[in-house]
Amino acid sequence: xxxxxxxxxxxxxxxxxxxxxxxxxxxxxxxxxxxxxxxxxxxxxxxxxxxxxxxxxxxxxxxxxxxxxxxxxxxxxxxxxxxxxxxxxxxxxxxxxxxxxxxxxxxxxxxxxxxxxxxxxxxxxxxxxxxxxxxxxxxxxxxxxxxxxxxxxxxxxxxxxxxxxxxxxxxxxxxxxxxxxxxxxxxxxxxxxxxxxxxxxxxxxxxxxxxxxxxxxxxxxxxxxxxxxxxxxxxxxxxxxxxxxxxxxxxxxxxxxxxxxxxxxxxxxxxxxxxxxxxxxxxxxxxxxxxxxxxxxxxxxxxxxxxxxxxxxxxxxxxxxxxxxxxxxxxxxxxxxxxxxxxxxxxxxxxxxxxxxxxxxxxxxxxxxxxxxxxxxxxxxxxxxxxxxxxxxxxxxxxxxxxxxxxxxxxxxxxxxxxxxxxxxxxxxxxxxxxxxxxxxxxxxxxxxxxxxxxx
Length: 456
Description:
Elements: H1 2-8, E1 17-19, H2 37-44, E2 49-55, H3 58-62, H4 66-77, E3 82-84, H5 91-99, E4 104-105, H6 111-119, E5 123-127, H7 135-138, E6 149-152, H8 158-161, H9 166-175, H10 180-195, E7 210-213, E8 221-226, E9 229-233, E10 236-237, E11 270-276, E12 283-289, E13 292-293, E14 296-297, E15 305-311, E16 321-326, E17 334-337, E18 346-350, H11 353-365, E19 369-375, E20 378-383, H12 395-412, H13 420-425, E21 435-438, E22 441-444, E23 449-450, E24 454-455
Parallel strand pairs: 1-2, 2-3, 4-5, 5-6, 11-16
Antiparallel strand pairs: 7-8, 8-9, 9-10, 11-12, 11-24, 13-14, 15-16, 15-18, 17-18, 17-19, 19-20, 21-22, 22-23
């Protein structure tokens, strides 16, 4: 946290951090660290921390887990808002979640879900990211609750960030005929007031933080000012680059194809399969026949049932947890990433064990990144040397590299997902139902417990 705060102070950009409330997100996975209530209290006492970030352990809130409740109590003690994260939580459960002090939620996928949360005092963040896209389902709420709505991207790939961000929410809302000032309020005023952040709102005495646009319909951003200083114009950043030290504690050892081998069970003929859904971070849960070859379970490419694995990146003795997933559509090869919310272990999905191992080993060599194995012999990788999650390289250059990997995944490997890497990153987020995978095994987010991949 301090590393990022110190780095952010080298730029004119106004960056406001929250204290991560769920490290790890659950106790059912291996993380690189544990932030307990005492740590959270120390963070929230800092003037550089503005809120308690998304409380995704909603079962802990509902059951009044002492550690979870202590973290939220510290936020309230310091007068800082608590962000929520409650996918599909409805009825009496969302009432209890709100009563605990949760102030926002960005996980609603339907108008009815968002409206119910609003009625309990939880503000709605309308999310439109690279994988999860909820704008169309939720935007109508702005007509009735303009003071309770904010816009949110939440996980945006670099190639998309080059093109648009919150301005896309504004453009789309205006094109649908929503009131200009309600839309601008959701894009700027509401978050500034909610989080009490020192950003100018075009009032006398405020810092001169504003944009210049071509008109109030197309909303093409021409210039950006921060504290009265021109920082970007005509799509070009005018801020100087800064050098940063690389923070990385990546400890994973190389893997072999045999580590992804799944022996055929003696008494089961079917699999529980994770089902990835394009445009969503929730998954389905299906039952499919097992495909066996030479005594081992293999990917069923014809039916789009592929192997998926998560490897603990914090140990030198890897032991992949292997399951099966439908929805990626790969016809060959594998893709892998160390962006795997929220413990950020290594996650890989592929057609064959050799390609999966090759994709994983390239990002292990890079100490983090995303990779595409077109074959075991041909692998392309975007290194992420800062904690295995970020890069110190130029954003536009990174966008070009990412775009190439994205194109290879779709055009060469055959994936039909709109954002395959972002979708992959959420397949390890256990608090989002239905089925997810941690380095310890297949997890049922509805029952909040591990489950056997094989069924009768």
